Amino acid sequence: MSGLSVKRKDIESIYFGGGTPELMVDYLPEIIDLVRSLFNIKGNMGIELHPRDINETLLGKLKKYGFNMISVGIQSFQDKCISILEREKIDSIGKLKLVKEFKFTVVDVDLIFGIP
Questions:
Q1: Which residues of the chain have pLDDT under 50?
Q2: What does UniProt give as the signal peptide span (predicted)?
Q3: Residue 75: what pLDDT?
């Protein structure tokens, strides 16, 4: 197979989401290297995070690996709704402020509306 050249396909963006993709953060360099060997990533690289997992170390690694989009699954800023959703109470505003410090190009927040 040596000597063969494979044209890499252009892709606009790549997104790691669903479940808890931050669990694979230690494998991201290998995954990203593999993806980049197969594709030209023309645009954004994004990842979904649970607010409890956001810290300076994780955000620094994501920035280093080339991620520029962060999606934070906050779901609600209201304690009552967080309780109904059976999620732990987290300083979501503090987590978003920390994300802001890292100057990601795109930051989005998942919110659930219509919770009884």
A1: 1
A2: none
A3: 93
